[in-house]
Amino acid sequence: MHDGTAAFSFELAGELSDDSARELEQVWLTASSSTGNKLLIVDLSFVTCIGTTGEKLLRHWYEEGAQLVATLPQARAIVESITGRRPEPIVNHHTWLPFRTSFRARF
């Protein structure tokens, strides 16, 4: 989790199982009580697979205005399957550090 001046972001990695999706939703419910109107950014760059509950949660967040972003092709495909469109390239959000600061992909 990263709480910046303009956005609150989650950086996810590995498998987003149904159990971890429920836990993520609970974390967001707790965090959102103090984030105000900040943009929610969910970085899925290092997510390898996603369960049904996670897909539903991310689709709901996307429909509510969250940005789903990803750099790696597999994660970009996950974002596209949820949103129905290709994800925007990640730009410098100035609110969070990349999951792996040494990773510099350009797509």
Question: What this model shows, in words?
Answer:
The chain has one domain (2-83): 2-Layer Sandwich (Transcription Regulator spoIIAA), CATH 3.30.750.24. It has helices at 18-32, 52-63, 73-83, and strands at residues 2-3, 7-16, 39-50, 67-69. Helix 1 runs parallel beside helix 2. It contains three helices and four strands, in the order ββαβαβα. The radius of gyration is 13 Å and the shape is globular. Helices cover 36% and strands 25% of the residues. By secondary structure, the chain is of the alpha/beta class. The relative contact order is 0.22. It has a four-stranded mixed sheet.
Distance between the termini: 24 Å
* Helix fraction by DSSP (H/I, runs of at least 4): 25-40%
Which fold does the CATH topology refer to?
A: Transcription Regulator spoIIAA
Number of helices: 3
> What would the principal axes of the Cα set say about the shape?
globular
Query: CATH first level: which class?
Result: Alpha Beta
Unreliable segments of 5+ consecutive residues: 93-107
CATH homologous superfamily placement? STAS domain
Oligomeric state of the chains in view: single chain
CA gyration radius, whole angstroms? 13 Å
Number of strands: 4
Largest sheet: 4 strands, mixed
- Approximate strand percentage: 25-35%
- Structural category is alpha/beta
Please state the second-level CATH architecture: 2-Layer Sandwich
- Widest sheet, order of strands: 1-2-3-4
